[in-house]
Write a structure and sequence with these properties.
The chain is α/β, with parallel strands linked by helices. The chain contains eleven helices and eight strands. The protein has a single domain, classed as TIM Barrel (Alpha-Beta Barrel), CATH 3.20.20. Strand 3, helix 3 and strand 4 form a beta-alpha-beta unit. It binds glyceraldehyde-3-phosphate.
Length: 247
């Protein structure tokens, strides 16, 4: 059986009660391709209320969580809390967490381990910065970010890898289908060599970075692109078009 196409919307720190109702409306109106797994990343404060109004074919994800179940960690939320309100997904290691909030591979991999051990599905984000790409270091960077996680986990069945080149996030500069496919293919080869052929074949590797209704179809045609993690466009009705990119 092939890998199920996966499309996530990452709302980041956007949306309010009214705006979320609008998004829920266009998701409910769809129609959404039933062969696609759809997840939206919601600001923590709106997680439970939004989960309760999302259509049943769209899952809710947190955008972050910490590496332990509870304790003196002001401002953080834990996988245990997400479980408590019925949330099954979390996005970890997003480039904004890495670059704005200074999260390093070590912390991110600890978070991934704890989230998986707590039963959550994890979207693990990786990606190189512009200067790293220009310096010919793309592979080195994304392999290292993947290795940090691979070294600590055994079960990959609940992991989606999101390859998001930092230079393409929120910039309107999408990676070309060839550029994205090239990295996805190399990541799959890395998984095959360093984890197992089974994990390489089964793990969804999705692309993120200025995905829109206009560029999603050609990206979706690439053999190793198993879906998308969408920022800005996930707040707009064109997100439905992106979900249906394979059609
Ligand atoms: O998580 C999503 C990515 O950061 C992509 O954001 P974007 O689609 O606004 O470029």
């Amino acid at each position: 059986m092939g890998r199920k196409f996966w499309v996530g919307g990452n709302w980041k720190m956007n949306g309010d009660k009214k705006g979320i109702e609008e998004i829920v409306k266009f998701l409910a109106a769809g129609p959404l391709d039933p062969n696609v797994e759809v997840v939206v990343g919601i600001p923590a404060i709106y997680l439970e209320s939004t989960k309760n109004i999302l259509p049943s074919n769209v899952a809710a994800a947190a955008q972050n969580c910490y590496k332990v179940p509870k304790g003196a960690f002001t401002g953080e939320i834990s996988p245990a809390m997400l479980n408590d309100i019925g949330i099954n997904w979390v996005i970890l290691g997003h480039s904004e967490r890495r670059n704005v909030f200074g999260e390093k591979d070590d912390l991110i991999s600890d978070k991934v381990v704890h989230a998986l051990e707590s039963g959550l599905n994890v979207v693990a984000c990786i990606g190189e910065k512009l200067e790293e790409r220009e310096g010919g270091k793309t592979e080195e960077v994304v392999f290292q970010q993947t290795k940090a996680i691979a070294d600590k986990i055994k079960d990959w069945s609940k992991v989606v890898i999101a390859y998001e080149p930092v230079w393409a996030i929120g910039t309107g500069k999408t990676a070309t289908p060839e550029q994205a496919q090239d990295v996805h293919k190399k990541l799959r080869e890395w998984l095959s060599k360093n984890v197992s052929e089974q994990v390489a074949q089964d793990t969804r590797i999705v692309y993120g970075g200025s995905v829109t209704g206009a560029n999603c179809n050609e990206l979706a045609r690439e053999a190793d692109i198993d879906g998308f993690l969408v920022g800005g466009a996930s707040l707009k009705p064109e997100f439905v078009q992106i979900i249906n990119a394979k059609n």
